[in-house]
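pinned: reference chain
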Amino acid sequence: MSTLGIVGAGHIGSTVARLAVDAGVDVVIANSRDPETLADLVADLGPRARAATAEEAAGAGDLVVLTVPLKALGDLPVAAFEGRVVLDTGNYYPQRDGRIADLDDGSTTASELTARTLPGARVVKVFNNIFSEHLGALARPQAPAGSDERSVLAIAGDDASAKQAATALLDTIGYDVVDAGPLSEGWRFQPDTPAYGLPYDGSTDGTWSGSTAKRVGAEELRAALAAATRG
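pinned: its structure tokens
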């Protein structure tokens, strides 16, 4: 791929942008404000990055990383995502997003809600269960796929070709993939599950730390996904 759109310039969005430009991918990135507010970020990222509106970023490439709070889904330029593969990093945090009944009762998942909001897009859930500093530290783009140097990330999605596109991007930036199944299984690596956050944390006392990162292989992540229970 030549260009990656990123809608959302927070910790995950800016980290993915850095990994992408370092791997030779052009990035068009947007936030909820004016593109001018991203001047410092794109200057730091270098000539492969430019700031844009959310509509422009969504239309810039076939793949779009969407990293916005669930409460902001209603503000998205829905038509701009038509036909795109959308890599959804979203999680449900009631203290931030407010209560969402369909998520509280387990009748749907966060990324299924995103897919419902963007009916013309093919949504893949990814990047939602890893701390941004760990995401940046564990990338191994020069290591061969399947090697002992690489960590894995979980994906979930309903479209096989979209998952293939997500897998190709992850390979480019230095990660392997464990396929967790359809979007309806995305809850297996949401907050408060064994696959969320801590597998990648290298601290010795069992607490979450951004200063250390630990490689996670496919077997370990599959075990964490299998251990998940739905409350």
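why pinned: The chain is about 30% helix and 15% strand. The beta strands are 3-7, 26-30, 49-51, 63-66, 85-88, 122-125, 152-157, 176-179.
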